[in-house]
Amino acid sequence: MPMGLRVILVGHAISPRRGSEPGNTWNWAWELSQHVSVEVFAFPEYRREVEEHLAENPNPRLKIRWVTLRGFDPWRPEKGERGIRLHYLLWLREVYNAIRESMLESRTKDSVVVHHVSWNTVSAPPRVPQGLAAVWGLVGVGQVAPWAFRRLFGRAWLGEAVRTFRVKALPFLPGWRRRVASIPLILSTNRDTEALLRKAGARSVLPFLDCGIPKGFGLSEPPDPKREAGSPFRLLWAGRFEPRKALPLALRALTRVQVPVELWVAGEGPRRDDWQAEAHRLGLGDRVRFLGRVPLGQMQELFRQADAFIFTSLRDSSGSVVLEAMAFGLPVIVPDHQGVGTFVPNEAGIKVPVITPEATLEGFARAIERMALDREARNRMALAAWRFAQQERWDRGAERMLGIYEELSRDAHRDF
User: Fold this and answer.
1) How would you list the strands of the sheet with 349-352, edge to edge?
2) In contact, 183 and 136? CB cutoff 8 Å
3) pTM of this prediction?
4) Cα separation of the two ends of the chain
């Protein structure tokens, strides 16, 4: 990697103490700065957390530029998310103006790559100044929930249908198409989003996982092939209790399983009472353990104690909890669609086709039985899952990303 490479990251939220968007921005910034100079343009919602961490862990290669809106800001973080979308669009304009000014002021001979790392919803491509070697992504949210499964959403399906309409309408919006086509390189988290971007005329789209594993997270050595499953077989599900996460698919599949299986459910959310009531109605009271919200430290212990992990989401860009489970050597059972269908290796678990609710339920049931009964296959999957998670550590992802930057900057021409 040439010493003259300068990386500018655009990430609305950044924090070393949080997950999701703030954590992803931080992990990219920190790991990339182990190799090259990194400048992050961010909104100061978590400024105190960042500055406290940097005071304790100085990093001369990492610089944070805090950008706020000049004048009116429609969003107040302390009052929830009302106005945040308009705020974000206005903030992006400020950021790219600031980047352009920074480039004009610096006039260095370094190669510069601007990487827009968050937000990465496919509906809001950034307005990248002409001539920049720019990367957008990791872009997701181009996937939609399958129509055949609408009853699992209940009253929430109306909102889901509106979202589906918006996503499918994007390729017909000239402004959106122009912005997508103007970006030199787009990194996509799943095949659905990639297909949407290519339909819009994207210049170059590469698949890239939008989550990672910190060094030291998970098992430090390959899972023990001699380890026997617990009795009953311990199957773990974790996520937010909201319609698209579709826990009832796992509950109903469990009623069709003829071997001893105990389902551990970690999470909270608006559907908690409904899903607990469904487990009771299905007669699963002694086979399902609802654990509530589980702190990260305790979650890691659950990963160690479980025999396999099941993921049932009907709409997700990737599913970072699946990668976390794999880091602990857990074989996984996932729907064969969207993010997990894209990134989970076939040898690391069982992918269940998403066709109709009946066929998918039967597929989950048979997958659970096979995982519980076939110890040899389960151990092979566990090893493959752990090896894949090791490849997806944040530090290794940063090394791959630097290779992408180098290739992109080699032929880029700046025109300021």
Assistant:
1) 288-292, 261-266, 233-238, 308-310, 332-335, 349-352
2) yes
3) 0.90
4) 25
